[in-house]
């Protein structure tokens, strides 16, 4: 590896480089040079948390087409790959013990879900039997292969994801796809391979090195994806930051009933309460949770079924806060009962949570009074006040108030109350916002591609998705009320209607989201604003601490 910043390739969890060999010393690691995700992976490895080994292509590979092309050349990362292979005792493309890799983006500033990730790189017709023999799990192998073909088709070849989703829906016929057996997954993989060849005009690449090369290039190119550009615009981030690429050995949350994938916060990001806030899916990979296309569960099932992994997760969360001094948003995988940490970053939070967390961390001795004051500077009483729904709603014309029952419920991803007209897409949301109307965005999935539409809305309601999906995280950061995973919601975009059980509403009808209680109301409801008396008193005491 080179000492040149433009050629910086970093190792994580592969053993320390030989300090006597200058070629093995990359440019000095920092969040700016290797991206915040990889920087925190390195920090987690250094404090003893179990992190899958990785090599990282720094942010200097992102600025232009020539740099991205150089990043895709195998010679650029040959030493990094060799280090992974030596560390794991596996080799990329090996027919007996194939090394499989994830390829992840990571900018110097956290941009949740705005760029691409590819999992299971290295699987092909020739290496799949080796994974079956090595894992003893044919279902895992075929599930990983079909996932790779679909995600690679969407991210690298530009094939609409719906082409693959339709095949999944047809085969499952309403069942949870995690119940598919290996024979069904083999059939699905074959269908995906045929779709890839037809849509891309070429077969799915069977050379693992070519897969890795194209995956690296595609992840770097996703820095310019419309949703990433929109996120930077909304958050006033410079386009010059660039993204790094982390190439990491795979761990498998889809290895069976004692495996799974999860996302969590070390404290409640909506209220700041000091308890773990976790979504977890058994027998799943990480994208199932964060993509917003699946509904996930809280931590109770994980704690019940895998108590050892849950205890390890609690210990890891405690270590992260002790070491990093702030509430963390982390991703993890459990494979056959063993916990692996995949990412951590300072968690996005509401203003109320920001105040509570800073005050609690100060009281716990993790941060100084000065740091707590810096973190709470600018939080006004109005920002910290809480809007809540009153049990009844005033009827038009001043008539007597009548109870207004909820028409549905969902998981709260971001608290507060939002009321507005239903809109199903960005064009409608922006048009009604321009006309002076408040808007509630309704979507089937909580996807980050909706960031521009969400910017024009007061709140987001989805039929599927987890509280910790990237879109929910972004909604919370933007101060939007967000409810996800409303099981009774059915959206018909062609008819421009939303059905909640027996009730059908049309685009333009008024809806209220109660993000405090996770309830949904037809029409407007009466609300009151509650001042956080105790929280304000604690902030006053902090000011003189």
How is this fold's topology laid out?
Layout: E1 9-12, H1 31-34, H2 36-46, E2 54-57, H3 65-71, H4 74-88, E3 101-106, E4 117-121, H5 128-135, H6 138-155, H7 162-172, H8 182-200, H9 208-221, H10 226-234, E5 244-249, E6 260-265, E7 277-282, H11 286-290, H12 300-305, H13 307-324, E8 328-335, E9 338-346, H14 351-363, H15 369-376, H16 381-384, E10 386-389, E11 392-393, E12 402-403, E13 408-409, E14 411-414, E15 417-423, H17 426-434, E16 439-443, H18 451-455, E17 459-462, H19 470-477, E18 481-484, E19 489-492, E20 497-500, E21 503-506, E22 510-514, E23 519-522, E24 527-530, H20 533-543
Parallel strand pairs: 15-16, 16-17, 17-18
Antiparallel strand pairs: 1-2, 2-5, 3-4, 3-5, 6-7, 6-8, 8-9, 10-24, 11-12, 13-23, 14-18, 15-22, 19-20, 20-21, 22-23
Helix pairs in contact: 5-6, 6-8, 7-8, 14-15
């Amino acid at each position: 590896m080179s000492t040149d910043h433009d050629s910086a390739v970093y190792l994580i969890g592969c053993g320390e480089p030989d300090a006597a060999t200058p070629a093995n010393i990359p440019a000095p690691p920092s969040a700016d040079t290797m991206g915040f995700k990889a920087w925190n992976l390195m920090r987690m490895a250094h404090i003893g948390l179990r992190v899958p080994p990785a090599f990282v292509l720094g942010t200097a590979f992102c600025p232009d087409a020539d740099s991205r092309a150089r990043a895709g050349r195998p010679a650029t990362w040959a030493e990094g790959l060799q280090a992974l292979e030596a560390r794991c005792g596996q080799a990329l493309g090996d027919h007996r013990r194939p090394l499989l890799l994830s390829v992840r983006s990571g900018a110097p500033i956290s941009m949740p879900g705005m760029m691409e990730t590819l999992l299971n790189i290295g699987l092909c017709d020739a290496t799949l039997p080796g994974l079956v023999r090595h894992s003893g799990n044919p279902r895992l192998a075929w599930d990983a292969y079909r996932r790779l073909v679909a995600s690679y088709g969407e991210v690298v070849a530009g094939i609409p994801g719906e082409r693959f989703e339709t095949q999944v829906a047809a085969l499952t016929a309403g069942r949870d796809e995690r119940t598919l057996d290996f024979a069904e997954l083999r059939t699905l993989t074959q269908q995906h391979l045929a779709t890839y060849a037809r849509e891309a005009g070429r077969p799915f690449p069977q050379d693992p090195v070519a897969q890795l090369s194209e995956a690296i290039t595609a992840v770097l190119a996703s820095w310019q994806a419309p949703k990433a550009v929109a996120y930077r615009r909304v958050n006033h981030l410079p386009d010059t930051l660039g993204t790094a690429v982390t190439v990491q050995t795979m761990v498998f949350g889809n290895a069976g009933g004692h495996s799974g994938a999860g996302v969590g916060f070390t404290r409640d990001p909506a209220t700041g309460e000091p308890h773990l806030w976790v979504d977890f899916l058994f027998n799943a990979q990480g994208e199932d949770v964060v993509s917003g296309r699946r509904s996930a569960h809280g931590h109770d099932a994980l704690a019940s079924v895998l108590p050892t992994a849950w205890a390890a997760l609690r210990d890891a969360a405690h270590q992260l806060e002790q070491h990093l001094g702030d509430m963390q948003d982390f991703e993890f995988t459990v494979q056959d009962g063993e916990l692996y940490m995949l990412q951590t970053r300072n968690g996005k939070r509401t203003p109320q949570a920001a105040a509570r967390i800073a005050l609690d961390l100060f009281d716990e001795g993790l941060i100084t009074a000065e740091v707590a004051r810096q973190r709470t500077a600018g939080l006004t009483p109005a920002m910290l006040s809480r809007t809540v729904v009153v049990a009844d709603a005033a009827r038009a014309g001043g008539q007597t108030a009548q109870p207004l029952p909820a028409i549905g419920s969902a998981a709260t991803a971001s608290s507060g109350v939002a009321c507005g007209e239903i809109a199903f897409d960005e064009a409608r949301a922006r048009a009604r916002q321009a006309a002076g109307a408040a808007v509630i965005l309704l979507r089937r999935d909580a996807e980050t591609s909706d960031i521009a539409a969400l910017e024009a809305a007061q709140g987001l309601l989805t039929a599927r998705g987890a509280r910790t999906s990237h879109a929910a995280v972004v909604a919370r950061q933007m101060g939007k009320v967000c409810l996800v995973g409303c099981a009774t919601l059915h959206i018909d975009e062609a008819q421009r209607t939303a059905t909640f059980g027996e009730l059908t509403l049309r685009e333009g009808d008024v809806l209220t989201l109660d993000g405090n209680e996770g309830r949904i109301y037809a029409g407007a409801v009466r609300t009151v604003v509650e001042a956080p008396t105790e929280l304000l008193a604690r902030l006053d005491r902090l000011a003189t601490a």
